[in-house]
Amino acid sequence: MSRRLKILHIISSWESGIGGELAEFAARLPCGDFEVEIGVLSGKDKTIPGIPVTTLGLRGAFDVAAYFGVRKIFRRFRPDVVHAWDAAAQLYGTLHPGQHCVIAEKRGKDSDAPIGTIQKYLDKKTHRFMAPRKNPGCPKTVFIPPAAVPASYSAPLSAEELLATLDIPLAEMPGDYYPVFQPQYEPKRRNYASMPSHPVPFLVGIVLPLTSEHRILDALWVFETFNHVNFNFHAFIIGDGKDREQCLRYRDRWKLFSRVHFLGNECPVHRLLPGFDALLHLSPSAEHSGQILSAMSCGVPVVALETPESREFVVDGITGILVPYEGTDERASRFYRRTAAKRLLHLLENEELRCSMQKAAQERVVKEFNFDSAVQKRIEVYQECAVL
Length: 388
Known about the structure:
CATH architecture of the largest domain: 3-Layer(aba) Sandwich
CATH topology of the largest domain: Rossmann fold
Number of helices: 13
Strand order of the largest sheet: 3-2-1-4-5-6
CATH superfamily of the largest domain: Glycogen Phosphorylase B
Shape: globular
Order of helices and strands: EHEEHEHEHEHEHEHEHEHEHEHHH
């Protein structure tokens, strides 16, 4: 009987855009062929049945305590393959000597896979000081096709059921008002005609961390437009982050306290997601682009910022809607915010368009982004590393 390969997975945090994919993938590896352990650099603890998970409590870009924590795992577990799932994991996975092979996962195609800002920063900062300590010839870069993480979705809830489950009343609620210190984000009056009230509220979801790089304030601007034209909707923002208090201030300042709800990280995403009428994804970051695939897999139309990753997932007008993105300056931001509001409003008003996109999106995920093929690709890479 051959010895089981020892695979050590390293990831920056479970809250990263690929945390759910790692959890599902690790649980699917055959126990008879692989012995698996997971090291998480920062964030909250998470338990996966049958798989040891160590959270290291990383503080800052490079933490000596986290470095020795990873070293302790190496000495105890003695992995054959170290699988680094993101840029921070690559840094900590390549600094420890041994006979193991380190692979760095990249998304997309080999020819056009963009190098992220974080990766460029780490390469620049660590080359001078860390390169002499790295294992020679590693990490080995492996390109894995994007894949939709499968999940057992519950039956979609109606608007009333979902709001009742979250204990959110349909009536308007009084809210507290906070001073706004960034007037450039203050919405201006728009000459949109008021719309007739729809009897059932439309539900819009956002699944992103509450940080400025993910453009949550721009999403609030879109929802303020809906409020201004008397559109019956509720928006649910799933995620947390350092800008939560700022987002709450803007929400209440723009009188969205009864329409926009911040649910945090603890809510069951896979139970709520199928009940949404649309997913709004205005983040230019590639890290959380997997949320687009998650929505498409359960038949939720997506309105997403046009980036290389979203273009790979969404066929504009067929499986979703793309919003042109030309930069972060104020003029470009005003343009894409208006465009996002108009296109999301058009999608929600057009039931026939939503139904056609739901069907087309699910078919595309099954055909192009099958999770089983990504699992098999990684297993083949592990077997190749074992032969070497």
